């Protein structure tokens, strides 16, 4: 700026004089010079907004985001935290892609490398929903993602290692770490808290009735009366919406997992049959096929029989929630106007098609994958055809069609009709949700009790979920004896209080749902992998684990941390082997940071990081 | 049920407060004029009749408020502006600085004032002005309440803002909920955590205090009580980490505007300043 005024420093009088003298040629030269300078002038300060949850909704997210902004600011970036409610955050990030950076706790990560496929494949870069929210595109990564689906054994392990190395370098997202899930549980009415995994639907089914003597009288202990399991949480979304396809209303899917069964469930040994009695794979050609036999005599909560027709319908609906009904508009084919479900696309995409061979046998054809990967497709919720068939039309508000969404994607699905061990009783939006057990479920069937070792029929008759404003309040409700357990995990701050209160059990579990920082790789400067790589190096994850999580977290490099899939060179060993912190003990080494950013093609002006626009 | 307990406690304390305040504020200062119970009932009846339309409007606004609290949140995410970051840029860690003076006794006091004091401060003038001889104070009070809620509601739809305890959890403690967790059960019934700008606690308290000043001729003893309570409540919103200083300032502005408008509409003088302003302008033009 200073240079340009020197080069063209004409006073007004001189200018008039020049014009008056008819020396228009010199003005023309001056303008040309101004134009060429303007080409070099457009430097812009690098500015990033981090969207995350307020402290009421998540005990750690906002604190972590503020730690990040203080490091970003020290590096000369204009950084700011924007707190957004969970439902709105998911909507803005997953549906409208309106973000620079988001910091959120992911849903529970399954322990299979195929989770990366929906997360990073470029075919989902412009898709709405849980798939590839980063808009990440990399042809090598695409190839590895496709090859690991087909490969088996050692070969697959090598491909997955390569894949993870590439992700760690190019940083479409940064894994902050895996938090410990802290919960407060009352010992009075239920036991077996320690072995029950409350992050999965089965956890609630393994709780045992009865507690520590008759010191506390409660409905649950009063003999023949109804046994109620009272859960208190901070997530109110389940009281407003129970649609398993709604991306912005689901976190862990535990509640919808109790209402809806899937063919198989994830256990430590992989996917095991659940609603299915068994399945048998046959590899006739390249791609696997499977015949899935359903348990006999299963019904939906409204009494309709559950058949293989429903299975075939579910997979067709997940692939295209309009079921081809939008075909033909503007001359497009059904394939072009598909409206796939925004959740489960990675899993449902494994399925080529499903045919109902008999009333209790469905035949699956898979595409481009090994049978092991194919069983992942069995973990999606099965939906009743007679309810959802009417929801394939375009969504409308008061009769006016809006956008391309179908009714299936936007319905709140209350009351839900599932086939799970619990059925819907009533809900009060923002306040409570009541479910009850249904005696028709196969868990109550004495005959095949032997096959299921851990999971038996639920020992409670009703499940009541109460919503409160924050984790402090949730612990308070349990401490007062008005609930049996905090359903959503609470912050480390509440640990002393849980420990002090008599009759409470402190549950601390390793979680499989990490906190991640996701970057919108489609807007500059986040398009630049070098920039993201350096950005990741501004974050001291050991410091965050100690300071924000009070030690109740493990930093990690890969989403698969803790599984056998992570190669030795990507394991966290006190520091990140790929993107180590540019400093020590939470303090950035500023000269080093600046040289890293300069190497990535950025500049500093008056200690502010700027870039060309 | 914990919520019922809290509501019961609140009711008990507020009723006790009303009785005490009646004795202190009304009974003695009104003794000279008191002409027995019959005239009291008559006065209440005539006052209520006189303010019936305003009371109806207030009831309507409160009902709308209840609905909008649920619908408005959705609407406000749709059209509202997220102010939280801007407020933080404006005042930075002011609330954290206030919390440095935190002390269990102060926390107990401010927590009490925030929940019980506030409910008392809002309800007592209704009773007190209902039994005074003129209908005017009661009508102005209701009008000011309507304006407060109306302006507040509009702002809540237009702006999304989280309070300091939600934005800088490492610096600002949710003192109220940490020391008395059950209170959150009550607070979440009436508040949504994205609705902090402006502070209705500050604006309604300031409104009551301003009106106590305007009508000090009616109840001279009410003025110091109302002022002390209003100041305490205003400070408590920040001390407890619920509101930003910006919310409080905005709340006081809303209070002042509401009281001015309520008075002017009562006197029918709302046009006059406008006319004066126009007159000045035309004078300026003539010059």
From TrEMBL, chain A:
Ranges for domain Solute-binding protein family: 272-567
Gene3D superfamilies the record matches: Dipeptide-binding Protein, Domain 3, Periplasmic binding protein-like II
Name this protein carries in UniProt: ABC transporter substrate-binding protein
UniProt organism field: Halobellus litoreus
Automatic annotation (TrEMBL), chain B:
GO CC term, one of those recorded: membrane
InterPro entries given in the database record: Aur1/Ipt1, PAP2/HPO, PAP2/HPO_sf
Keyword set, alphabetical order: Membrane, Transmembrane, Transmembrane helix
Identification of the protein by name: Phosphatase PAP2 family protein
Coiled coil, from the record: none
Domain Phosphatidic acid phosphatase type 2/haloperoxidase: 144-263
TM helices/strands, residue ranges: 6-26, 109-132, 144-162, 196-215, 222-242
